[in-house]
Write a structure and sequence with these properties.
The complex is a heterodimer. By secondary structure, chain A is mainly beta. Chain A has helices at residues 6-13, 29-32, 261-264, and strands spanning 33-37, 48-53, 59-63, 68-72, 83-88, 96-100, 103-107, 112-116, 126-131, 144-149, 154-159, 174-179, 184-189, 194-199, 205-209, 218-222, 276-278, 287-292, 306-310, 315-324, 327-337, 343-348, 353-359, 371-378, 386-392, 395-400, 414-421, 431-435, 438-444, 450-456, 463-468, 484-488. In chain A, the strands form seven sheets. An eight-stranded antiparallel sheet of chain A has the order 18-19-20-21-32-31-27-28, with no helix packed on it. The N and C termini of chain A lie far apart (50 Å). The longest helix of chain B has 40 residues, at 2-41. In chain B, helix 1 (2-41) packs across helix 4 and helix 4 packs across helix 5 (124-133). Chain B is 17% helix and 36% strand. Mean pLDDT of chain B is 87; it is low at 553-562. In chain B, the strands form eight sheets. Chain B has an eight-stranded antiparallel sheet with strand order 23-24-25-26-33-30-29-28, with no helix packed on it. The chains are: A mainly beta, B alpha+beta. At the A-B interface, helix 1 and strand 9 of A face strand 5, strand 7, strand 8, strand 9 and strand 10 of B. Strand 9 (126-131) of chain A pairs antiparallel with strand 23 of chain B.
């Protein structure tokens, strides 16, 4: 049962707006990934904030209305009936859920709580406060997002600013680590309005940041301990952090003309640039949950990459990350779209089943439903995609999921624009400092799975937006399912 | 043939002559009717001076007189304008009783011709129609609303080639219209989306697809919004930009979207599954401002700023169970926890102060504010709220002269923006002697709160009781560990009056009784407070009893929201 797509439906009646498909066999998302809606119980409103997978085969989801549901048969529905059980309710807008050692940890606005059902009636009855070492002022925008546990037993949380602009309670605008023993470590500053926090395949923490003050575009950021993420409003709390997150960074320029992140990296030692900019309006509008593909190929060919939800565009993007000169950077590609509501939670099981849930309340979404809980399965077919986009000293190396027809791997098949954003206190930024580099394909590998793209010039700090036109697979002559890639070049490899 | 032509020419000559003659008459009547306006607006329309002020504003500057919006001008004449400041001495009165349709039409002609840019000549019939349109407006206009009406009227037309397809059926969500056969199709020449073609279907359920072209004057980021009851979606250039699907009451969904200058095709999809119907849509941004694409030019709510939602009262899954609910509530710190017990007695326990904040009776909680839109907090729904003691529960007092310290705040110089002067902010800070530990629920889901105070572990539990037919709450505070010397527990700090029967009034609605320790009531600045000295392994039991039975078990007036 896939989403009844009114987009495709419309092609029949809205001929003027929609070019007819080139051929019926043109590959589409549903050839590779199937989306299944798992309906909520009658009357329930499951505006998912986070999802975790329980060892008993159930899936747990916490909701913006403060409920925690567990779902049996979520992997097998509709072959087996999905059974929803209300484990807890009336928590305070929880946006983090993690199972560990018999406890279900939930990150809610005021605290990290761990829960247990001791009397075995299916409902939690023990609610232990693990940590409440941060402030809330009562402003609705002070969201607290939480990760699952890292290898050291820490939950990572990220705290939205008050009203998304100021820091009127302790550690608003910070990333905090909460250990299972209850100790809290102030970890990184400079957060504005996060949408989710998680880890890459190597276990480093990343969070998603929304376009706004000091953020020209939304982005995926590396929550490196001691880093400053760019918005200085929360830096007043360094007085309370006792050096745990290092020295207070110097302020970025408050001038109306602003600056550039790359320029300010030279002035502000702790400023960590966005690992991957998610160009505003191009790949999304409000990035959310982060999930690494650790399924060892069971969810398609993207092992080790990240999936990042987008609430507004009701989709999940894909991110390739690499570390260059000690700094994370990489590319974002569009991946899955057509979800029924605004994706917030994204969770992938080890055997390659992805769950997502979210809401459109207060912030609209393309998928028009108030909430959704959906499952994505890989069909086993490999879509033709750019697999990785790596920076080289002279350009980029592109790898593909399927061999390319070498005759199409020519400079004319590629177009590139590079640009950056103003780093400023004003809300957002237009794309600025545009450059159109010259491109050349200098080599194509024997197996047709990679090529070297020479880019002149490469510009540090710029998003390099690649459009691939004529490139085709050697078998079937398919074009790329998603022909755009956006690489954030924080560092040029030496 | 020739004769016919002459007749036609003659006819035109006569009618055009008579039009001219009629217009003179209109101007004459207009001038006569204007005399009541001239008293304040002046014979020259520039406003009559009275000292430094004008009696009324100049009509030469009026957006209504200039703009060619006879309908809006009629609205102003009919209903008057609310006096919001003292910029002008007089007030624009409602003239709907004073002037008939013909007089209004003529005064509009006169005013727009004499003081405006282009003469408007509405007919008495037009005015009659507008009179009907404005009938729902009961009071004078607010300037803000007038401003919005002018903006709407002045908005550029960006839509062309608008057509609709109407489908009959009942759905819970947007159907695949392409697979359905429309019962009716047509063009909408006015260029505004409207549900009126579906009138014949009434409340039997229908769907509509609107398709058209819009011209965006400049590239930029625009808000794209669709407001509907029930579901809808707004597609631009074949892509869904904002969805608003499902069966629901009037709901706005709005998304920022980059649009290039030029023509874009769009579709608006809509369905109504049988109850109330509503559809409006707009694009807002750039120099063009807000442009409504629909005939209905509102988000369906009379007063957007004070939009309220039908209450959502929380009830327990089982009647003998309590509800424990965490959300922002008025008159408590942000870590407040609400507990609604069977029998409609409720309390707010504050996990910032580790103390009971208040008790109340009636409906437990209206969570509608928290569950709608972005959600800014819940409302304790009942009444007869009694604030018990504020601040932290315990303190070591070397003597009873020592004051109770409010511990929970700190201030910091807040460098919000280095270009602005620094300002200090006050914020809640955890007291170093306390740590909240959470709560456990018993078989009836009654919570026992737990926290650390210095070396003590403290539990705080509440049980509803009925004493002589009046509801009460019995609170048990237990400590484990060795109590430090001179540790006091402040139980009450407002409205204290000791009575002979061992009860202590706390305000006019409630009395308390303390067991397990001897209460000490002391005089402090601003009133009295009741303390007990804590002793190791000795629980303190406090009974909070209302003085009278609950009068109205249903909702009484809720406490004021922030």
């Amino acid at each position: 049962m896939t989403k009844p797509s009114y987009l495709f439906a419309l092609t029949a009646i809205a001929v003027l707006s929609f070019p007819a498909p080139a051929s019926c066999e043109e590959p589409k998302q549903s050839d590779y990934y199937s989306i299944t809606q798992i309906p909520a119980p009658e009357g329930a409103v499951v505006e998912g904030g986070d999802i975790d997978l329980l060892p008993n085969g159930k899936v747990a989801v916490c909701t913006r209305r403060g409920q925690i549901w567990t779902i049996a048969n979520a992997y097998t529905y509709p072959d087996e009936e999905a059974k929803w059980t209300l484990f807890a309710e009336y928590l305070h807008e929880p946006l983090g859920l993690a199972w560990k050692d018999g406890w279900l940890y939930v990150v809610q606005r005021p605290e990290v709580t761990r829960m247990k059902d001791e009397d075995g009636d299916g409902r939690a009855d023990v609610f232990e406060t693990v940590s409440d070492d941060w402030g809330i002022s009562g402003n609705y925008h002070e969201y607290t997002f939480g990760s699952r546990f890292d290898k050291d037993g820490n939950l990572w949380t990220t705290l939205c600013l008050t009203g998304s602009f100021t820091a009127e309670a302790l550690y608003r605008g910070w990333v905090l680590r909460i250990n299972e023993d209850g100790t809290m470590t102030p970890t990184a500053s400079g957060v504005r309005s996060p949408g989710g926090i998680g880890f890459n395949a190597q276990g480093d923490a990343f969070y998603t940041e929304n376009q706004g003050a000091w953020n020209g575009s939304s982005s995926l950021k590396w929550a490196k301990p001691g880093s400053f993420q760019g918005n200085p409003n929360g830096n007043i709390w360094f007085d309370y952090a006792n050096g745990a997150a290092g020295k207070r960074p110097v302020d970025p320029p408050f001038t109306t003309e602003g600056s550039r992140t790359d320029t300010e990296r030279g002035n502000i030692e702790q400023l960590t640039p966005p690992a991957v900019i998610l160009p505003h309006q191009k790949v999304g509008n409000s990035p959310t949950g982060i999930e690494a593909d650790l399924s060892e190929g069971k969810f398609g060919p993207f092992e080790g990459q990240l999936f990042v939800g987008d609430q507004t565009h009701s989709k999940i993007n894909r991110v390739f990350l690499e570390k260059v000169n000690g700094m994370y950077q990489g590319a974002v590609f569009e991946f899955l779209e057509g979800f029924e509501s605004g994706n917030i939670a994204v969770r992938l099981s080890e055997d390659g089943v992805l769950f997502t849930s979210g809401s459109n309340r207060g912030w609209g979404a393309r998928g028009g439903k108030v909430f959704h809980f959906e499952r994505v399965n890989w069909t086993g077919k490999v879509p033709f995609e750019i697999h990785e986009m790596r920076a080289t000293p002279t350009g980029f190396e592109l790898t593909f999921t399927r061999p390319v027809d070498k005759s199409t791997a020519v400079a004319e098949s590629f177009k590139m624009e590079a640009y950056t954003y103003i780093y400023q206190k004003a809300y957002g930024s237009p794309e600025v400092d545009q450059i159109s580099p010259k491109l050349a394909v200098t080599s194509v590998s024997e197996d047709g799975l990679s090529l070297q793209l020479q880019v002149d010039p490469l510009t540090r700090g710029h998003v390099h937006e690649l459009h691939v036109g004529g490139l085709k697979t050697s078998d079937g002559g398919h074009t790329l399912l998603h022909p755009e890639a956006y690489y954030t070049l924080n560092e040029i490899p030496k | 043939m020739k004769r016919q032509l002459i007749l036609i020419l003659l006819f035109f000559l006569i009618t055009s002559l008579s039009v001219e003659a009629q217009q003179d008459k209109i101007m004459e009547l207009g001038l006569a009717s204007y005399q009541s306006c001239a008293a304040c607006h002046g014979p020259d329309g520039k406003g009559v001076k009275a000292g430094d002020l004008l009696m009324a504003p100049s009509l030469h500057d009026s957006a209504f007189v200039k703009g060619g919006h006879s309908d809006l001008l009629t609205g102003v004449i009919l209903k008057g304008i609310h006096k919001e400041d003292n910029k002008y001495i007089q007030i624009m009165l409602a003239l709907e009783e004073a002037l008939n349709n013909e007089q209004i039409a003529s005064v509009i002609a006169y005013v727009t011709s004499e003081f405006g840019e282009k003469r408007q000549s509405p007919t008495a019939n037009d005015v009659a129609k507008w009179r009907k349109q404005f009938a729902r407006q009961t009071g004078p206009w607010r300037r803000e609303d007038l401003q919005e009406m002018v903006e709407i009227a002045n908005a550029p037309k960006i839509v062309s080639d608008l057509s609709y397809s109407l489908y009959q059926g009942k759905w819970e969500e947007l159907p695949e219209f392409a697979t359905l056969e429309p019962v009716k199709t047509g063009k909408l020449k006015d260029g505004f989306i409207t549900l009126s073609p579906a009138k014949s279907i009434g409340k039997k359920g229908f769907g509509m697809v609107f398709e058209g072209t819009m011209t965006i004057p400049e590239s930029g980021e625009y808000a794209v919004a669709v407001v509907s009851d029930d579901g809808s979606a707004f597609n631009i250039d074949g892509e869904t930009i904002v969805g608003n699907d499902g069966t629901h009451e009037i709901t706005t969904q709005r998304i920022k979207h980059a649009l290039d200058k030029g023509m874009h095709t769009f579709q608006i999809l809509y369905f109504d599954n049988g109850a109330a119907q509503f559809l409006s849509a707009y694009i807002d941004g750039g120099t063009m401002g807000k442009v409504w694409l629909s005939e209905v030019k509102s988000e369906g709510k009379k007063n957007k700023k004070n939009a309220t939602y039908p209450p959502i009262f929380l009830t327990a899954q089982n009647p003998n169970e309590a509800i424990v609910h965490r959300a922002f509530v008025p008159d408590a710190n942000p870590r407040a926890i609400g507990v609604g017990y069977p029998g409609k007695v409720n309390l707010i326990w504050d996990a910032d102060t580790l103390n009971l904040a208040y008790v109340y009776r009636g409906e437990f909680m209206d969570t509608a504010p928290h569950w709608n839109r972005r959600g800014s907090g819940s409302m304790p729904a009942g009444a007869e709220k009694v604030i018990t003691a504020q601040g932290m529960p315990f303190q070591i007092l070397e003597s009873l002269e020592e004051p109770w310290v409010p511990f929970s705040e700190a201030t910091i110089a807040y460098e919000r923006d280095t270009s602005d002067p620094k300002e200090d902010i006050t914020f809640n800070i955890k007291h170093p002697d306390y740590q909240f530990q959470g709560y456990r629920l018993d078989k009836n889901r009654f919570p026992t709160f737990s926290y650390q105070y210095r070396s003590l572990t403290v539990t705080d539990r509440f049980d509803p009781q009925t004493i002589n037919g009046v509801k009460a709450i019995v609170r048990s505070i237990k400590t484990s560990g060795t109590v430090d010397e001179n540790t006091y527990f402040r139980i009450a700090s407002t409205g204290i009056q000791e009575k002979k029967d061992g009860w202590i009034d706390i305000g006019s609605e409630m009395a308390i009784r303390i067991e397990g320790a001897d209460p000490v009531t002391r005089q402090v600045e601003g009133g009295k407070e009741t303390l007990v000295l804590l002793e190791t392994d000795t629980p303190v039991i406090i009974t909070y009893r209302w003085n009278t039975p609950l009068q109205n078990a249903a909702v009484a007036a809720p406490p004021t929201a922030k």
